[in-house]
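Page 47, continued from p. 46.
Same chain as before, 461 aa.
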Amino acid sequence: MKKIVGLSLIACLALSMVFMATGCSSKSSAKKIKVLLYMQEHEKKIYEKIVADFAEEHKDEIAGIDFEITTQEEYNTKMIAAMTANDMPDVFYIGPESVRSYVDNGRALPLDNYVDASAVNNLWPAIIGAYRYDGNEVGKGSLYCLPKDLSCFAFAYNKDIFDEAGLPYPDPNKPYTYAEFLDVCQKLTKDTDGDGEVDQWGVANADAFGMTPYLYGNGGHFLNEDYTKVVVNEDKAFREAFQYYCDLTNKYHVTPSVEQDTALGGYQRWLDGQVAFYACGTWDVAAFMDKNTFPYNWDLCGWPVGPSGDGRSTAWLGTVGYAVSSKAKNPELCAKLIQKLSTDLDGQRAVSGETTGHSLQLPNIRDYAKSNFKNLVNEGKIPYASNVDVIFGYVEGNDKYNGIFTETTYTYNGEWWNIFLEGVANCKNGSVKVDDYLASVQPKMQKALDTAIELQNSAKK
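Result:
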């Protein structure tokens, strides 16, 4: 994903696992695959086994696989160092927002001639578009990655908190309106121990990934349709949604304050049972289903829908993909490895929880996801939130749910987005008015976007 950003990833210690195959000839000793990825601690063991199995299956062709797992924060540093030293790993991640730059700079191998077309055609359509690029437009042209996953941020709610308050659970078939959501959050924001201080909140919002569902769910956007102009100060739907988002904190106080959030983040407050609603990435499900990590009853629902939107709850879609270096000495084997990780049925049965009991993601294989996987969830044989259809709704789209990639997916870099994020806290704590902020930040964002467009044009030349 972009699991891109960050999105609520648990940092894990960097380590390097080397799976050595035996009985290799001197010819195969030159064929060693170097892999650099990042992932959560609970993901690591399952993927290590998939890679070890691949090394064993191909022990007559490769000397082994250097499988290095690091944190998301360290990953970028390691990749920059590898590019600088001209010593790229053979297999690595690319997020949709980085496809342009990797391809334009000649670092990623087009996969069309290396991967099984029928397997690719059975992936979720949204994934395919995220990793195609024709030199001008994302979504067209050659395929440069196979997905690790297709994720989304659904909304999770703590059922125990609802039970304690005597409130009905959210209806997964009828997402809250802005007004309804505020009303519920106000009823769930409480001083539970009577010390005069609020210690339970309706919702905790992480700006980097928990803000966009409010904006998109009201029909607001950061950029115009061709991603060349910043419109945050001109788009009335955006302004309305951003005001609502900030008011949840500084006007209605149904979220932890900026200072409280700095002291203890929303993710940890969710795990501690202090908030009723929090974002749930598909990769979070396994952790939330673990009673040692989250000892509460919970389920999924939709993000609230704004008055200016199309009536659908709209969430951020994310993905991160396996790419093969354009300089890999054994591209065929590298392509086989990423197919094992991405499109192999046994691998997807493992990472989705059927054979391991730990659901790390929605299966990439669409037919399997919509049949066996979904049936096993409904039968209670795969540990998952019962309202799994919420996630399917975001991924597939329907009359209640819609999933979209953020605009950073379609721009050369995300500097313009980072500039916007820098001042959000000031609006949430009330020190800067929303109108003033949008007026001042739009030209700064536009300058950064213009620079990104120039960089893209220069890279293509």
